[in-house]
Amino acid sequence: MSVDGMSAASLESCHELRLEIDSRLECVTPLGICLHALAKQLGFDDMNAYQIQTCCVEAINNAIIHAYAGEPGHPVRVHWQTQGDELIIEIQDRGRAMTTPPPEHEPAPDAENGRGWWIMRQWMDSAEYRDRGELHGVRLRRRIDGLGNRA
Amino acid sequence: MDDLQRKDYPQARVIRLNMGRLTASSAAKVLARVRAAGEGAPALIVDLSEVEFMDSTAIGELVVLTRRLREAGQPYCLAELRPPLMSLARLMRLERALAFCDSVDTALASFAKPAPQG
Fold first, then answer.
1. What's the pTM value of the predicted model, to 2 decimals?
2. B2 — pLDDT class (breaks 50, 70, 90)
3. What is the number of alpha carbons within 13 Å of residue A148 lying toward its C-beta?
4. Which residue in A13, A23, A56, B43 is deepest, having the highest Cβ count within 10 Å?
């Protein structure tokens, strides 16, 4: 897929993309690069595209590490769509569902883990866990604001 | 080119990570190698200027590295974080847990200062 090669017009008329990787951490980086490029094509600047990429990577990592317990051979799907002035990204897996709600508290600065949900909540307009039976994952929302960016 | 580049100065050893990404798939192994490469040096400066992307797993591994260096009594700092990564560090209030320096030169100068008397 050559995202950089797409014209703005082709992306304006394409409001929905689905990407899928195998549940291996080494597959996350190229997918993250694709998502960064897609965010840039929507008009986000480097910093905002980086924030969106980071939030997606956190959700994808969670799917691989927690839902699939690090086991390769399972799908992790990214559903990227624009609806009006909003970007909606769903990261979905078919692994083990979360049994407790995602943490809402700010992690301690010296914590060794537990930062992913905090980052997603701070850098996206919303980040929610959705359990739909066999399919579950994270829905991230971010205003596009007429191709503008966050201050 | 080696993905860890080492340069020794009288007051510190600089280890530059020649990799664009420090992520869940690599961070634990890379930072264990950094720690091993820094053993025996008076101080350790980790040059992150080439790192464009870091995830929260990598941050956790930096916390682990910091803890081990402090336990060993070895001064250190993380230098030259790019602006996006510095914004992530501020978001997580990492300045309270990790040691950052603007540049390798700043870090070298700070480690060269004599210890306060008394």
1. 0.89
2. confident
3. 6
4. A56
